[in-house]
Design brief:
By secondary structure, the chain is an alpha/beta fold. It is built from 10 helices and 14 strands.
Length: 303
């Protein structure tokens, strides 16, 4: 494994009768943006808390740069929890300086770094405000600044884009790209799958505590079964349902989307569509990450 890689190796965690994580394994490479996606309760936050040492795994190991992650390594990580982890009555600048010093930065360096991130994240006019007086979007920016202010070696972000307006999403996206470009492994969870697809080098899809999809978005979509959108105004309802090896994904008046099984010739679908009358559109495409995700959480696999 490459240097500075963060590895989660066969990590399991139970809470009573509930299995939150079941032998979960994935890695985040240096300079990589890794998207960690799953439904609520799938195990994303539990995995992140184990990486940070907030929770202890029942089995398995977390490693960074080939070594088990301990306290010293975790002080070099930046963590952004989904729930607000800030002191509500503390001013923005004072809070960031304090958190930077907690991570070991000298006072002068902590001030410089805090001011730098306040400026870069568009918070200069709010630097003297109490966090509780900020909008939710600005609180989210402060939370990101808190994760970055000590110049971490690893970034672990739980739903960092939640509640942000489009401009703030662009700002945060650029910051994450810049951090990854310096060689920092960056892992974040998000329900905004179009954003994950656009930003991430690789993705892990988790369902009921198990990884059910893992790899680059290009690889995952390339390996997925192809789909065809057919617009045939004269086709009767259910015309595609009986075609061998073909699964109907959605059907609307005049428009049907089908998924092709292995070795199914798309021309057979076209022939069947033409038998019903004129075909105005016949478009083959690969599923998006959102479509893969829906398959994974309903059927247990992206395949």
């Amino acid at each position: 494994m490459s240097e500075r890689t963060l590895e989660i190796d066969r990590v399991s965690k139970r809470f009573g009768d509930i299995t939150a994580l079941d032998s979960v394994s994935f890695d985040i490479r240096p300079g990589e943006l890794f998207g960690f996606v799953g439904s609520n309760g799938a195990g994303k936050t539990t995995a992140m808390r184990i990486v940070l040492g907030v929770l202890a795994a029942d089995s398995g190991e977390v490693r960074y740069d080939g070594e088990p992650v301990g306290h010293e390594t975790r002080t070099r990580m930046g963590y952004m929890p989904e729930e607000r982890g800030l002191y509500p009555k503390m001013k923005v600048l004072d809070q960031l300086v304090y958190l930077a010093q907690l991570h070991g930065l000298p006072a002068n360096e902590a001030h410089r770094s805090a001011e730098d991130w306040i400026g870069r994240l568009g918070l200069s006019e709010r630097r003297g405000d109490e966090v509780q007086k900020l909008s939710l979007g600005n609180q989210q920016r402060v939370q990101l600044a808190a994760a970055l202010v000590h110049d971490p070696d690893v970034l672990v972000l739980d739903e960092p884009f939640s509640g942000l307006d489009p401009i703030a999403v662009d700002v945060m996206s650029q910051v994450l790209r810049e951090k990854a470009a310096t060689g920092v492994p960056v892992v974040f969870s998000s329900h905004q799958l179009d954003l994950v697809e656009r930003l991430c080098d690789r993705v892990g899809i988790i369902r009921s505590g198990q990884i059910v999809g893992y790899g680059s978005v290009a690889d995952l979509t390339a390996n997925a079964a192809p789909r065809i959108t057919v617009v045939a105004p004269g086709a009767p309802w259910g015309w595609a349902a009986a075609l061998p090896g073909v699964r109907v994904i959605s059907e609307q008046p005049e428009s049907t989307v089908v998924e092709l099984g292995p070795d199914v010739d798309d021309q057979a679908v076209l022939t069947a569509a033409l038998a019903t009358g004129p075909v105005h559109e016949f478009a083959r495409h690969r599923p998006s990450l959102a479509e893969l995700f829906r398959n994974a959480v309903t059927e247990g696999s992206v395949a």
